[in-house]
Amino acid sequence: MNALSDGLSRFGGVYPLPVIIGVVALALIGNPSTWVTLTVAGLAMGMMIFLMASGLSLVFGLMDVLNFGHSAFVSFGAFIAASVLAAMGSWLTGSSPALNMIALLAAISAATAFGAASGWFFERVIVRPVYKDHLRQILITMGALIVAEQLLLAIWGGAPVPVARPAVLEGSVLFGNVAIETYRIFAFFLGLAVYVCLYLVLNRTRIGLLIRAGVENREMVEALGFRIDRLFIGVFMAGSALAAMGGGMWAGYQGLITPALGAEMLIIVFIVVIIGGLGSIEGSLLGAILVGLVANYVAFLMPKLALASNMILMMAVLLWRPYGLKPAVMG
Amino acid sequence: MTSQTRPNDTVSAPAMSRARVGRMIVYGAVGLVGLALLFAPFLFPDVRSQEVAARICVFVVLVASYDLLLGYTGIVSFAHTMFFGLGAYGTAIALKNMGPGADAILLGGGAGVLAALVLALLIGMLSLRVKAIFFAMVTLAAASVMMVLASQLSQFTGGEDGMTYQVPRIFSPAYKLLTDADGKTLRLFDVALNGKIALYYFVFLSSLILFLVMARIVASPLGTVLEAIRENELRAEAIGYKVVVYRTAIFCIAAVIAALAGILRAMWLKYTGPEVALSFAIMIDILLMVVIGGMGTLVGAVIGVVIMSLAQFYLRDLMEIAAEATSAIPLLPDLLNPERWLLWLGVLFILLVYFFPAGIAGTLMGKGGAK
Asked: What's the ipTM?
C-alpha cells in the first residue's frame, strides 16, 4: 500500500483523478464530440458546486463547525438572483451585451451580498452559542435549515420559479463540430476565478496565513494573540456569500428552480466535502469536479444509475481514504 | 454510619426533591398516555383518533430507538427513516405479491429487517470510526439514495404513489373477533370487537414489547457503556471498551427496531409510500420528537411523540385562526398559514436546543441528557 501511495504521489498524488476518469469515460463513450460536451458540462457543474462547497469546508476546518443550514444560503441565493433577473427585464433580454452582463452581475452581487449579510446573522445568532458542541450544532443548524426552507416557501411559494438568462449567454459556441453552451463556459471561468482568488488569499496574504494556521491548530494561533473568532466570522460570511453566489449561478444553469433545491444541493455539497476532505479548498475543488464529471458521464452511459452515482463515488473514496482525498489536517 | 449523611447529599437536597417531583410528573404523564393508548379504541372510538393512537404507538418505538443513538450514545444519524422504510417496504411488497397472510408478513418483514441490519452494519463499520459529523453526512447521503431508489424502482415499490395491499383476514374490519348469540360482531361499550381492534392491539402490544426491550437495553451494562462513550469517548476507549464495536452494535440494534416499527406501520396503514415511510419529513419529525421529549430518556420519547402528534393536528387549527385574524397585514398571514406550521415548530426547536437541551422529560427529571 505504501509503495502504491509513493508511486501515486510521484504522479501528482490524487490530483490527476479527474483526468483518469475523463480518459476512462472517453474510452467508454467513444464519440469525442459527445465526450467534450459532457466534460464541459461536468466541469461547469463542478465549478458551481465548488462555489457552494468551499465555504462549508473552510468553516468546518477553521472552527470545527459543520453548518447543516449551509444549503439555505444556496437556495436563498438562487431565489434572490432569480427575482433580480426577473426585475431587470429588458436589460437582461435586450441586445446590448454590456447591459446583459450588468443585469447578470447585479443578480449575482445581490445574491452574494445577501449571503454575506445572512451569514453574519447566522453566525452571531445560530452558531455562536453552540461552539464546541457538535451534537447541538447539528441539531440547531438543522432547525435553522427547516425555518429557512419554510420562509422560502412563505415568500416565493411552492411553485417552480422560471429563471431568465441574459441574452448574451444564451445559445452555444461552436468549436469544430462540438457545440458548447455559453453559460457553461461562463460558469466554469467564474468558478475558476473564485478558486484562484481564494488560493491567492489563502496562500499569499497574512490573513490567509492565519486562516491556514487556524485550520491546522487553532489553540496555537489563539495563544499567539490573534483573535481567531473575528477571523472566523469573516470566513463564515465569505463562505455564505460564495454559497449564495453558487446558488445564483445554479439558478441560471437550471432555468427553473423550486424550494427543494436547497435539500438537493445539501446532499451533493456534503458528498463533495466528504470526498475532498474537510478544511481544504483544493480538496473541495477536486471533489466538486469529480462529482460534476461522474454525474454527467454516468447520466449519459447509464441513466438509471445517475442518481446513485455520487453516492457510489463517495463510498469508493471513503473506502480508499477514510478522511477524504485531500484533507487539510489528518484525523 | 447509617445516620450520617454525606455533605454533598445535604447540599443537593432541594435539587433532589425537585428532581423527584419532576420524575413523578414525567412518569405520571407517561403512565396516563400508556393507559389512554391501552383503552384508546374504547375511549376515542372515532376513526381519526384511532389513527392518531396507532401512529403514536409506532412512533414511540421509532423515536425511542432513535434516542438510543442520539441521546444515549451521541450518534447523529439521518438514516433512521431509511431503516423504518426498509421494514415497511419489505412487508408491503411481500403482502402485495404473496397475498395477505402471516407468511408474507414474516418473510417480507424479515427480509426488511435483515436488509436494515446489513446496511446498518456496513454503514457503521465504514464510517462510525470517523468523526460524528462525518457520520451524520454519510447517513444523510445514504438515506437520500434510498429515497431515490424507492421512487425509481417503481415496478417494485409503486414509485411516488406507493402501494396499497390487504392484511391477513383476522386484522380486517369485516372479521368478527367475538360473536354474540345472533352471530353478529359482539359489541363492548358500543365498540364492535372486529379485526380492526385486533390490529390495534397487535400494534399496541408489539410497540409495548419493543419499548420494554429498549428499556432493558438501556438499563443493561451495554447501556452504561453507551453513556460512557457519549460522555467521554477517549476515556471509554482507554478503559478498554472498543468504541467502534459498541457504536456499530447500537446502530444495528436501533436499525432493527426501526425496521420492526416499519412493519407495524405498514400493517396498520395497509398502504406504504415515500410520504409515510421514507420521506425526509419523517426524519425531521423524529428529530424534533426526540429533542422536545428529552434526549437520553426513553420516557421522553413518549412525551415528545404525544406532544408533536397533537401539535400536528391542533397547531394547524390554531394557525388558521391566527392567519384569518391578521389577514389585513402583509406577509404575516403567509407566515401564519397552516401550511407553515413547520416554520414555528422549527423556531421552537431551535429555542429548545438553546435553553432546554435536556428536553421536557430531561429538564423535569433534572437530568442533563444531552451534552
From this structure: 0.76
